[in-house]
Design goal:
The protein has 173 residues and is α+β, with helices and mostly antiparallel strands. Helix content is 21%, strand content 29%. The protein contains three helices and seven strands. It has helices spanning 3-21, 103-111, 121-128, and strands spanning 32-40, 43-47, 56-61, 133-135, 141-148, 151-161, 164-171. The strands form two sheets. It has a four-stranded antiparallel β-sheet, covered by helices on one side. A hairpin with a 5-residue loop joins strand 4 (133-135) and strand 5. The longest helix is centred in the N-terminal third of the chain and has 19 residues, at 3-21. The chain is elongated.
Length: 173
């Protein structure tokens, strides 16, 4: 094999490798790419366009993992221009105190018997148990007693808003 033939063979192999790894735009369905194999006087060639009257087709599956960062984003809506006339402000809904706590963190909090903002009433009962001191007004508050050798050592106040923990306070009696 001569040097130009070797270089031509390397070039064709590089083109095929690029095609397999996604270097060419896919022509076909989203999970496959179609390329054309042509034999000519210079040897075998691969292309993303037909290179002769009767090319052989080579279909390569897309093996890339993942997707685009913006795949699940909502459509962009440009900001609305202010109206010429003033409108009455809509009544603001109460902000929800609940927040998502992933399962690993939640299990850790429950194992440590710890309550954090964002937990639901059920999760507080799992962590601390039921309490006999519940004050509904002015804000729903549950009070827990921590005893040490029979004496009250600490009081824990759990404040709820919309069914979820807003804040937790620890106080000495």
């Amino acid at each position: 094999m001569t040097a130009p033939d070797a270089i031509s063979g390397l070039r064709q192999a590089a083109i095929l490798l690029c095609a397999i790894l996604g270097g060419f735009p896919a022509s076909g369905s989203a999970d496959t790419a179609t390329f054309y194999k042509c034999e000519g006087p210079d040897g075998v060639q691969f292309s993303d366009r037909p290179c002769s009257a009767d090319p052989d087709t080579v279909t390569v599956r897309d093996t890339r993992v993942g997707g685009s960062v913006g795949d699940n984003l909502p459509e962009y809506e440009p900001p609305k221009e202010p109206a010429d006339q003033e409108e009455e402000p809509a009544p603001q809904e109460e902000e929800d105190a609940c927040r998502f706590i992933n399962s690993t963190d939640l299990r850790t909090y429950l194992a440590r018997e710890q309550v954090v903002p964002g937990m639901t009433r059920e999760q507080v009962e799992q962590a601390f148990g039921r309490t006999s001191e519940v004050y509904p007004v002015p804000q729903e508050t549950w009070v827990y007693q921590t005893k040490y050798y029979g004496a009250i050592y600490e009081l824990t106040y759990v404040y709820f808003r919309n069914g979820c923990v807003e804040r937790v306070e620890y106080r000495k009696p």
